[in-house]
Amino acid sequence: MSTARAARGLLLIGAFAALVSRAGAQDPRASLRLDAPSKAALAAVIDSARAQGLPTEPLTEKIYEGLGKGADGPRIVAAVRMLVQDMTNAQRALGTVASSDEIKAAASAVHAGVPAVELGKMKKRSGLRRSLTLPFTVVADMVSRGVPVGTAVDAVRSLVGAGAKDKDINEFQRNVKEDIQQGASPAAAAETRAKTAGGTKPDGELDR
Amino acid sequence: MAEWGRTTLEMIVEELQRPVRFDQSFDRRLMVRVRRLYREQRKRRGWLGAAASITRHPAWAAALAASLIGMVTFGVIRVRQGERVVATNGLEPVQFVLVAPAARSVAVVGDFNNWGFGDSALVATNHHGVWSVTAPVRAGVHRYAFVVNGKQWMADPNAPHSSSDDFGMPSSALVVEDSTK
Questions:
Q1: Chain B residues within 8 A of A81 when measuring between CB atoms
Q2: Is B114's Cβ below 8 Å from some Cβ in A?
């Protein structure tokens, strides 16, 4: 194998590596938009979250969201601190078995007003292998649409307990949303739809 | 017809099976000719001619295989199966749709594209008022929004609400399943 041929091959592999690393890089212009005190505060918050074992990707995403929506530095710092608090509560309740996505989804539900302890109970009952990312997302959605917290948690917990799959829970969410849009009471819509969704039997009797 | 009990056919077969004698320099002359042909071909193909020989060497074959595995792993190359694009590194095709007949432009921004920072917004195409764009999104939970006419942020009316701090602007939640699991 000649030296020239080896050099050509290495150049080719190097070009691929550069392309791949460039694709995963974050935009350096983001930090230029933030004032120095906010940058320092955000760095400290992210370091603290990392030390707690929290996923830091959602925090970076929140910073980009703030920048994309034109928020100023202090507003972004406040939002990231709030997210760390919500994720901390979620992680404590779910335990170490929870995935990064579950913590992120649970933090969103906690932000909506769902007690973290209720999400933790749901996680314990569902078993380790069942991801509750979608159920937590649906609980947060229900609450934001006016379904009382207790009703939303009970409805989704009964579906998960009955072995409903994510597609069933998605369908449940769509049905409740449409019922509410057509004028139904949010609580009544969630209670009624939970009775027949995802393999549960009518009259609230669940398959166990 | 038979000769000492053998048929004509047997005699033909025996003749064909008889080893042919070459002179001792035959192998050497053959290899000289083959090498000359290879050099002439390589000269005609120029730089690309070298590429043909890369895979013949075990080290080059290993380097090429490693490059391909790397590209597939990092999503530079994706595998197409039928009509559905299946990502090999946890990216899944997601179609975003917004019905907005009066809109002049629709873009999708979310945590999967840094919320449009640095011109990374997904630009939707218009089909008689139905705006849509399909993009690869990592499996997991995401938040996103539509930006209509370049300034109006709106949640996806067909997706779950996001209840996180939205900086005063609505967002939607999206859970992307990993099709490989």
A1: none
A2: yes
Q: What are the sequence ranges of the domains in chain A?
A: 29-94, 96-208
Per-residue pLDDT of A43-89, as tens digits, reads: 999 999 999 999 999 999 999 999 988 899 999 999 999 999 999 99
What contacts B79, CB < 8 A, 6 or more positions away?
Answer: B72, B86, B88
A36-51 and A73-94 helices, crossing angle to 10° = 10
Quickly state the pLDDT bin for B177 (edges 50, 70, 90): confident
> Which chain B residues are closer than 8 Å to A29 by Cβ?
117-118
- Give me the residue spans of the domains in chain B: 1-49, 55-89, 90-176
Residues of B in contact with A13 (CB under 8 A): 63, 66-67
Helix (H) or strand (E) holding B7: strand B6-7
What is the ipTM, given to two decimal places? Answer: 0.77
Q: How far is B15 from chain A (nearest CA, A)?
A: 46
Between 2.60.40.10, 3.30.70.20, 2.50.20.10, 3.40.50.150, what CATH number should domain B90-176 receive? 2.60.40.10
